[in-house]
């Protein structure tokens, strides 16, 4: 290829990349939301009102404002300064906005954030909280917006709490890290609180006063990485050993003076089922009825499917077998479940060599688990290689036993003769 052609292609690539970056930046320079309010009218029940909102992001370095797009009637317009950069990176989102009333919190791990007892004048302006879900990767953000420049339509990002996922899976008995991160700007006063909620009950797992660097509440088996919290805003909660009781919703709350934001992460505990197929080996006489038992134990969650398959001699595929009987679930001490799957078969000579399989499908194993046994019907064919190996092993054991007994007998008579000769 001619050198000038290479230069032209390189230039076109650079221009294309620059155009793409500008396009994405333009797309991320604005986004839409819904202001959710509870309204009431005289002699009517309270209703939820959803008002469309349009946000134009301001470049924090130059404070330049984009010209607003043509808005639908009734749409509120706000200009937002985002020094966190989190809103700039959004592409495809769903957003809900609610009004926020800044106030003190009486929790022990938050009191130090407002020791001075004098709130700033800015708390009297408009405050909102955004709950944002990224539709592409399902990341979640909670964003606190406060007033800027004494203008009602100008807001600034004060706090961002975000998580890399809203649903996570953790293996039973292994360590796990529940994700939660924050951006708090230059604010040095903050507190982290982790709660767990399941079956209508909730409890505090961890509470950390970052301002005083003091752990206020700590549940056994839970911990924070304090250097990561202060340097990177990484407030992930580490579980030393996942238990079934951890399944539920983890609530990560970040407190700043007078404001807070929260993210919810649903944790699902999974345990890989242990599967075995009995009897082993699978031998039968012609016409004998057998019961295959598939033992599926110590799995979580409860939802599971078990089926039997058979690959008959001469066929290269497996077919489902009907009339499978499932036992009721048993509840194990560690919170997992177990069950049995039974299949009645009759050993026929033409089924010699048939391959019976028990296949288990569970969320912990996307590809499924399979255990198989081969049916051997007596008298249908001569001894197989496995039969020969078994016979050889039995013969070897018999030979060893006889050799041992022979040595014992010889030793016994030799001792008897020695005693007799000594007595003479």
Attribute tags:
2 domains, six-stranded mixed sheet, Immunoglobulin-like, 27 strands, alpha+beta, 424 residues, elongated
CATH topology of the largest domain: Immunoglobulin-like
Low-confidence stretches: 1-28
Q: What kind of oligomer do you see?
A: single chain
CATH class of the largest domain: Mainly Beta
Radius of gyration: 35 Å
Would you identify the CATH architecture of the largest domain? Sandwich
- The helicity comes to 10-25%
Give, in spatial order, the strands making up the sheet with the most strands: 1-2-3-7-6-5-4
Number of domains: 2
Task: Output the number of helix runs.
Answer: 3
Query: What's the N-to-C terminus distance?
Result: 112 Å
Protein name: TAP binding protein
Pfam family, one: C1-set
InterPro entries: Ig-like_dom, Ig-like_dom_sf, Ig-like_fold, Ig/MHC_CS, Ig_C1-set, Ig_sub, Ig_V-set, Immune_Resp_Modulators
Keywords: Immunoglobulin domain, Signal
What this model shows, in words?
Residues 1-28 form the signal peptide. InterPro entries: Ig-like_dom, Ig-like_dom_sf, Ig-like_fold, Ig/MHC_CS, Ig_C1-set, Ig_sub, Ig_V-set, Immune_Resp_Modulators. Keywords: Immunoglobulin domain, Signal. This protein has three helices and 27 strands. The chain has 424 residues and is α+β, with helices and mostly antiparallel strands. The protein has two domains: 25-270, Sandwich (Immunoglobulin-like), CATH 2.60.40.10; 274-377, Immunoglobulin-like. It has a seven-stranded mixed beta barrel. It has a six-stranded mixed β-sheet with strand order 8-17-16-11-12-13, with no helix packed on it. Strands 18, 20, 23, 24 and 25 form a five-stranded antiparallel β-sheet that branches.
């Amino acid at each position: 290829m001619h050198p000038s052609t290479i230069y032209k292609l390189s230039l076109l690539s650079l221009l294309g990349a620059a155009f793409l970056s500008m396009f994405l930046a333009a797309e991320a320079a604005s986004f839409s939301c819904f202001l959710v309010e509870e309204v009431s009218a005289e002699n009517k029940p309270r209703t939820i009102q959803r008002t469309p909102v349009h946000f134009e992001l301001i470049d924090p370095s130059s404070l330049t404002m984009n010209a607003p797009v043509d808005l639908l009637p009734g749409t509120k317009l706000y200009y937002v300064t985002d020094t966190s950069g989190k809103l700039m990176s959004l592409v495809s989102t769903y957003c809900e906005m609610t009004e926020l009333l800044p106030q003190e919190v009486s929790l022990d791990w938050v009191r130090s954030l407002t020791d001075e007892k004098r709130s700033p004048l800015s708390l009297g302006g408009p405050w909102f909280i955004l709950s944002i879900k990224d539709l592409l990767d399902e990341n979640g953000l909670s964003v606190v917006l406060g007033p800027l420049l004494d203008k009602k339509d100008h807001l600034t990002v004060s706090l961002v709490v975000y998580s890399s996922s809203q649903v996570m899976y953790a293996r039973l008995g292994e360590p796990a890290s529940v994700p939660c991160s924050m951006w708090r700007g230059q604010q040095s006063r903050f507190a982290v609180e982790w709660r767990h909620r399941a079956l209508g009950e909730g409890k505090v797992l961890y509470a950390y006063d970052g301002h005083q660097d003091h752990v206020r509440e700590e549940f056994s088996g839970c911990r924070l990485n304090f250097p990561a919290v202060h340097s990177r805003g990484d407030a992930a909660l580490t579980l030393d050993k996942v238990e079934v009781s951890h399944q539920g919703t983890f609530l990560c709350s970040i407190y700043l003076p007078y404001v807070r934001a929260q993210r919810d992460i649903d944790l699902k505990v999974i345990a890989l089922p242990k599967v075995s197929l009995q009897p082993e080996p699978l031998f039968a006489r012609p016409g004998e009825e057998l019961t295959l038992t598939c033992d599926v134990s110590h799995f979580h969650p409860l939802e599971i499917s078990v089926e039997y398959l058979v690959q008959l001699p001469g066929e290269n595929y497996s077919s489902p077998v009907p009339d499978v009987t499932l036992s009721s679930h048993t509840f194990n001490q560690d919170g997992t479940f177990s069950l049995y799957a039974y299949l009645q078969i009759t050993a026929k000579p033409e089924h010699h060599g048939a391959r019976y399989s028990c296949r288990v499908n569970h969320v912990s194993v996307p590809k499924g688990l399979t255990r198989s046994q081969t049916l051997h019907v007596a008298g249908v064919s001569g001894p197989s290689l496995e039969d020969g190996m078994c016979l050889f092993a039995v013969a070897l054991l018999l030979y060893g036993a006889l050799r041992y007994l022979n040595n014992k007998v010889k030793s016994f008579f030799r001792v008897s003769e020695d005693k007799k000769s000594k007595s003479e």
